[in-house]
Amino acid sequence: MGCGSSLSAEFQEKYTASIQLSAAQKKIVRETWEFVEQRRSYVGKRMFLKFFENNPEYKRLFPEFKELSLSDIEKTKELHGHAKRVMKALENAVSAMDDAEIFAAYLNELGRRHKDRPMKPLHLDSVKTALMFTLQELFKSSWTEETAEAWNKLFMFIKDQMVRGLQSRA
């Protein structure tokens, strides 16, 4: 009986997810994504390099990077591959802003797959910091408080859903 109730609550929670962005914030994210998408390889690599620059100890989460300098990491195919996958996840986030339940299921699974790394929620906070830095750097003076708030809210949804996956028993 207790297990059935827990499963039902988990199922309901998983499929009632919503991204807390206003229509105006969704518009900002979509418009800025058009610019980011054209530079996605650069943005993905720059974000990871900033992530490792801010948190050199996190290289241990990536066996392929743990013994490398930032300049050596920058040259690897593995950095390109991981950056490409993260940018695809961001693209999926932008595309799914109006279908959060499906995207939440994807992010939960993504979180579960990262248990092997061993990723913690604070690592996702560091990814957000690196992403926001990279976006602000990319947009320069056209980066506004409204743009930052919209992207922060979107990333918080991503983080929250991935953390659910990380903390799941399955």
From TrEMBL:
The protein here is known as Globin domain-containing protein
The entry sums up its family as follows: Belongs to the globin family.
Give start and end of each Globin domain: 20-167
Classification from the root reads:
Eukaryota, Metazoa, Cnidaria, Anthozoa, Hexacorallia
Family matches, as PANTHER family:
BLR2807 PROTEIN, GEO09476P1
What keywords were assigned to this record?
A: Heme, Iron, Metal-binding, Oxygen transport, Transport
What is known about its subunit structure? Monomer.
Which species is the source of this protein? Answer: Porites lobata
Q: Which domain of life is it from?
A: Eukaryota
